[in-house]
Structures are given as C-alpha cells and as structure tokens.
Amino acid sequence: MFDDRELGVYKRRLEALRQELTHLKQTGDEAARIVELDQTSVGRLSRMDALQGQAMSQERGRRREIELRRIAAALQRIEQGDYGHCVSCNEPIARKRLDFDPVAAQCIACAEQAEQGRR
C-alpha cells in the first residue's frame, strides 16, 4: 500500500508525536503531584482549585498514556508491514484518514461499527 518513502514520513510523524507527548508527560507529572494538606499556606477554596487542577492533570496524563500506546502500536505495525491496513477487517485504511490520524488502526467502517457497539 505504501512505499518505503511514504512509510518513512508516517514513521517520522509518529516518532515526533511520541517525543512531544513524552515531553508533555514529564512536565505534567509535576502538576499531578499530591496536593499538600497545609491549610496555613492555602485556603480552602484554593485547595479545592488545586485538587481540581490535580484531577485534570491526572486525566490528561492518562490520555497521554493511551495515545503513547496507540503510537507504539502504529510504529509496530510499520515494522511488521501491517501499517495502513485495518486491524479488524484487514482492508486498506484511507490515506486521508491516516494523514489526519496516523495512529488510526481501523478503517472508517470498522471504527463506526465499534463506536456503535459502545453505545
């Protein structure tokens, strides 16, 4: 489906995404740290804000981890020669879909079917 040059372009995009997410993970770890109970330095509302910020940071971290796993899986599919084929039906994934989302593992039809199954 793809020649070596095209696969190289996708691989570089995926590696750049992985590097960016890894950097964000390192900077986000500080924001997700445990909120201290010291009420003398932080008022009750400020503490609530800090807890909310911590929860949001933890959720962003969880989503980054999911995306990093998706990137690793896409890179593995490149190495195995399966990149660009749907993991469900083995049909080619539209090039426009991969250009938009290089970690896409399913064609549109299978992705829609999977989404309907989750509802």
Instruction: Give the number of DSSP strands.
Output: 0
Specify the number of helices.
Answer: 4
Radius of gyration: 19 Å
Q: Helix amount, in percent?
A: 55-70%
Strand-pairing-aware structural class: mainly alpha
Please tell me the CATH architecture by its name.
Up-down Bundle
CATH superfamily: DksA, coiled-coil domain
Note the run of SSEs as H and E. Answer: HHHH
Give the percentage of residues in beta strands.
under 5%
How many distinct domains? Answer: 1
How many angstroms separate the termini? 33 Å
Outline the fold blueprint.
Layout: H1 4-31, H2 44-80, H3 95-100, H4 108-118
Helix pairs in contact: 1-2
Keywords summarizing the entry:
119 residues, mainly alpha, Four Helix Bundle (Hemerythrin (Met), subunit A), 4 helices, elongated
General description of the model:
This protein is mostly helical and 119 residues long. The protein has a single domain (4-118), classed as DksA, coiled-coil domain (Four Helix Bundle (Hemerythrin (Met), subunit A)). The chain contains four helices and no strands. It has helices at 4-31, 44-80, 95-100, 108-118. Helix 1 packs antiparallel against helix 2. The two termini are 33 Å apart. The model has no long low-confidence stretch (mean pLDDT 87).
